[in-house]
Each structure stands twice: as structure tokens, then as C-alpha cells.
Amino acid sequence: MRYTIHNIRHKASSFDDDDYALFEFDVHFAEPEELWIKNYFVDFDWVHAYIKTVNPEFYDYIYKIRRGLDRWGNRAYLVLQAMEEEAIEQMYKYTVDYMATVDFLEKSFEQRIALRNQHPIDTIEQQMGMQEVIRAEKKAGIEEVFSNKRYYKFCETLEKQIRELAVEVYPDILDLPADKLVEFKRLFVRDIQALHERLGKFRWENKEK
Fold this sequence. Notes:
15% strand
């Protein structure tokens, strides 16, 4: 089987603004017969995990960007937005390399050929059938995503306000060494998580039956 990948781009997941990201591309199969698959996609997390095994240094570079965002959650799309253009091109290259290590495209080719043979008219909808199934599965978790966004908003807002208050009352904090300032940034994480858990329990107990 021979194919080439074209027009790689990245985008936020269709049901979230910035927590999840996709690498989307078109695939041209030349053998065993010609076929185009448009708008195929693979999760950022899968490519990121692959990079950890083949280029730990580049993986660490991505991790540092993520830490520098000072945000709660995965924030994969924001990570990509913060990367240099050269690094983005490297991500695209690793996306192609990763696809060569799995059989996703081969299976998609076989499914589309089987579908086309069952139906003489090879419509775009048929070509994209498998991808739509995958998208539907992702959208099935939309309520969980919205719940996460509320969680992130609560935690990020509270953390920012606590830090600002701490520095206002104790300005000497800003004179601490850099490593201690990093520690300060994460100082309230567990407390905020505990507060959110208590809030969730309170809401649940008082939810209208």
C-alpha cells in the first residue's frame, strides 16, 4: 500500500475551544488503487505521546510551553498556538511519522473501498463515513467537556485571585528566588481542588429533585 499525506493543519477540537487539538490532513492512496480521504484527523495527544518515545528533548520543549501557559487542564490547542512556526512544522512531520507506525489509514482505505463496492455511487459522504463515526464518538462526550470548562474557570479564576491577594498583602513574595516563585504558583492547587469538590458536593446535595 502506498500513500502520501497532504495539507496538514491543526485545529481545536470541534466541541471545545482550546483543551483538545487535532492534526487534520488529506490522504492520497496511489496503490493498490487510487483513493483520496479528505479531512482525516488524529489527536494531538497521540502524536505527543509518540514524540516522547522518539525525541524526548522536543517532548520536553512542548512540556515547558504547557507549563508556561499557567492554565488548568490539557490546553493542547493553546500549546500549539504558543509554539514557534518551526516547531509546528516539526509537529506536522511527527504526525506523518506517527501515522506510519499505526494501521489507521490502511483500515480506513479498506473500509472505504468496501463501502464503495457496495454502493456504485462513491459519494463524499461515503468517503467520509468512518471519520464521521469517530467524530460522533468524540461529540458523545460533549457534556463532560462543558463540565471541565466550568471546572477550569472556577479553579483558574480562584487561583489568580488568591495569588494577587497574597502578593498584595505579602509583597516580599516577589523577592523570592525564581524556583520558589514557581513553587508559589502551584501552592494553592490542592486547596482549590478541595474547594471545588466541596462546592460540587454542596450543589449535588441541594439539587432540586
